[in-house]
Design a protein that fits this description.
Elements lengths: L1 H20 L4 H18 L8 E6 L3 E6 L6 E2 L10 E6 L2 E6 L5 E3 L2 E3 L1 E4 L10 E3 L2 E8 L2 E8 L3 H5 L13 E17 L7 E13 L2 E6 L1 E3 L2 E6 L13 E6 L6 E5 L40
Parallel strand pairs: 2-3
Antiparallel strand pairs: 1-11, 2-4, 4-5, 5-8, 6-7, 6-9, 9-10, 10-11, 12-13, 12-18, 13-14, 15-16, 16-17
């Protein structure tokens, strides 16, 4: 009996520690938990990151696609035809010509021969076949085929992402220092193709009497940060994390809520093309907030 009592006491102690490790008002904690719940739901959606099953860079000319290993691009799924279609890259245009026996559709309309719009046009051509979807993406001067399977095992097996306990102390008010004019910064990527981005300025903030800075990237009505810290490779994803923030207010203040720091897509799949933190966004501090690492990617 004493043994079971001790086990029960240890469990209660551990659970109590977990609850106590959350810091902040209950309203704030609930808000962050709701944000994270929506984040998980978005990962599972059709345009989320859990259903990616292929990423293939096109060469000039013909690129064949299907189940057979005779193709240039192969998806090993017995439910797929040996040959589905070909993609022809000519300069900056990608044309798809389908196997006439295969029912490929864009916006519900059957297609046989069509020029595909890539993702950076803002209106990409999304081709559907059974549970599969694919489109052309443009990275730098290169074009690639991105393939999704809405019934991918990871979508069904996904159980969520570990997080640091919510801690309102990691909701930090930073000073925004604008670049006048906004400057172009080079953002490396996990596929080795750097991207030029526009930075409207940097944020400067204090943690335990130390000053840190991050270059921001313009992202619609938000600021976007790709950053690294000393938890990377241990508790968090080795290639850094992402964070969004509202644009500066009338007195150039920005709220950085690191409880909303999250993993890039490459933490879940090898078929993403994630940006990496530029050198100036590598922080010499452990940001023990937000999402922890997931899997082995």
């Amino acid at each position: 009996m004493l043994r079971y009592f001790l086990i029960f006491a240890v469990v209660i102690f551990i659970v109590g520690c977990d609850v106590e490790s959350e810091k902040g008002s209950q309203e704030y904690i609930n808000q962050i938990n709701e944000w994270h719940k929506n984040r998980i739901e978005n990962l599972k959606k059709e345009n989320g990151w859990l259903n990616l099953v292929g990423l293939f860079f096109l060469k000039e000319g013909e690129n064949t696609f299907g189940k057979s290993d005779k193709n240039d691009f192969v998806i090993n799924d017995t439910s797929l035809p040996d040959y589905i279609c070909s993609f022809y890259l000519r300069d900056t245009l990608v044309e798809m010509i389908s196997n006439p026996d295969i029912d490929l559709r864009i916006n519900g309309e059957r297609v046989n021969k069509v020029v595909l719009q890539h993702d950076l046009t803002g209106n990409p051509s999304i081709v559907s076949y059974k549970s599969y979807r694919w489109l052309i993406i443009k990275r730098g001067e290169k074009f690639a085929l991105r393939v999704r399977n809405l019934e991918a095992p990871l979508v069904k097996e996904f159980k969520g992402i570990d997080r640091f306990p919510v801690n309102e102390e990691w909701k930090i008010i930073a000073d925004f220092i604008p670049y006048n004019p906004p400057k172009e910064i080079l953002i490396p990527s996990i596929i080795g193709i750097p991207e030029k981005e526009i930075s409207p300025g940097k944020v400067r903030f204090r943690v335990k009497d130390k000053i840190f800075e991050l270059d921001a990237i313009e992202s619609g009505d938000k600021l976007f940060f790709v950053f690294a810290d000393e938890t990377n490779g241990e508790e968090t994803y080795g290639a850094g994390r992402f964070l969004y923030a509202d644009k500066p207010d009338s007195i150039n203040k920005v709220t950085l809520d690191f409880n909303k720091a999250y993993n890039p897509p490459c933490a879940f799949t090898p078929y993403a093309t994630c940006p990496l933190p530029p050198p100036q966004n590598v922080l010499k501090i452990k940001i023990k907030a937000g999402e922890k690492s997931y899997g082995k990617h």
